[in-house]
Amino acid sequence: MKLLYIDPGTGSMLFTILIGVLGAAVFALRGALIKLRFFFSGGKKSADDEKRLRIVVYSDSKRYWNVFRPICDELEARGEKAVYMTSSPDDPALNTEYQNIACKFIGEGNKAFAKLNMLKADLLLSTTPGLDVYQWKRSKDVAVYAHVLHAVSDATLYRMFGLDYYDAVLLSGGYQEKQIRSLEEIRGLKKKELFIVGQPYMDELLKRKEAEPAPESREKTVLLAPSWGPSAILAKYGEKMIDALLATGYRIIIRPHPQSYLSEKETIDSLTAKYPESERLQWNRDNDNFGVLSRADIMISDFSGVIFDYSLVFGRPVIYADTSFDPSPYDASWLEEETWTFRTLKKIGVPLSLADLDNMKAKIDGALENRELKENLAQAREECWQNRGGSAAAVADCLEKLLADVDAAREPRGE
To answer: What is the DSSP code string of 56-117?
Structure first.
């Protein structure tokens, strides 16, 4: 007997259809039950009708706890009730004690989306793009969906339609507002509420950096921290890049993007097998990247947002690889202007081509001595990282404003 095969795309489509059918049935049944309870209670609200959550924070990965922790801390301090839902069973949030915030593991992948698709809440905050595009659908019982950026790079460097169906987006810098408005106009989308709040996790990095004692003199350390996908360093340069770095004689740390371990597992497995850890080479997978960023004298990357975490917080030079970035899978492909990320990289970093790999040590030494790069960092900070030191409070202010709007919309209108 021949087994039936369903490809991943078809499987995703079938799952979406199933969730839609089940969702419609659940909402219809729920509506009927509410009407019955209303009738038999003489028009009074039942206890079940009060189970709507006030604020839900959803994280698809533990790696975003650095974004959410300052926000949750601020909500806790204000006495705001919230539920933090995570798809990582080992999310650090699950070991954090709050009085006003409950932290829950809700499953991974489709299991988590099935719960989110039936959620009942006034407001949901997330860093996850693709709402109402793939398996994660808008729940009819969530009043507002808000997205907070997890990097200071372009809002258009998400995969296609990443932010289209959110109601509000919390930005790190003013330049991102123009990008979102342009996409809304091109695609005929309803205008979102946009708030410039800054970047909470970068505020925390800066606090930690300022509190840390000055590093002792040590051996030069180079951090290779690429993004993921066919346009990223490991896919484009791979072994040639690692060989060139090892030839410099400097200490090398390689920190692949967490998504690489899922989407590029074969490549990562091959590289870690050929280049095992040694006195000169370390593969880093720490959830908290502060330690590795603070140890590095220079970073080599491509278009990863971590470039800005490193250069803007630590004030150190970066080398960015010319990977011939293909914007076609991203929202950036819909806009004619060059991305802010690549435009700014030219000012705060030194480009690296395949031909430069033969002279890698000279390239690194030249970047370390380049004073102009540091001078350009000030302007970049102003453009992409506003409300420095007050980002978490700004996020909480925005959430309270959105909740006030939800409450006002529910109040009965006067005759």
So the answer is: EEEESSGGGHHHHHHHHHHHHHHT--EEEEES-TT-GGGG---SSEEEEE--SHHHHHHHHT
pLDDT given at position 40: 45
Q: Where are the domains of the chain?
A: 46-199+389-410, 204-384
Mean pLDDT for 169-175 is: 97
Asked, colleague to colleague, whether 46-199+389-410 and 204-384 share their fold, the answer is: yes
Using alpha carbons only, give the angle 352, 356, 358 rounded to the nearest 5 degrees.
Answer: 145
What pLDDT, on the 0 to 100 scale, is given for residue 41?
43
Contact of 61 with 258, CB cutoff 8 Å: yes
pLDDT, one tens digit per residue, over 196-255 is 999 999 999 999 999 987 666 678 999 999 988 887 888 888 899 999 999 999 999 999
Please state the pTM of the whole predicted model: 0.78
- The fold of the 204-384 domain, in CATH, is Rossmann fold (3.40.50)
46-199+389-410 placed in CATH 3.40.640.10: no
Averaged pLDDT score across all residues of the chain: 87
Q: For the beta carbon of residue 229, count every other beta carbon within 10 angstroms.
A: 22
- Specify the amino acid at residue 289: N
* pLDDT per residue as tens digits for the range 12-49: 445 555 555 554 454 455 445 444 544 444 444 444 44
The C-alpha atoms of residue 258 and residue 227 are separated, in whole angstroms, by 9
Q: Residue 1 has what pLDDT? A: 40
Contact indicator for 137, 16 with CB cutoff of 8 Å: yes
263-272, long-range: CB < 8 A, 24+ apart? 263/228, 263/229, 264/228, 264/229, 264/234, 264/235, 267/234, 267/235, 267/238, 268/234, 271/234, 271/238, 271/239, 271/242
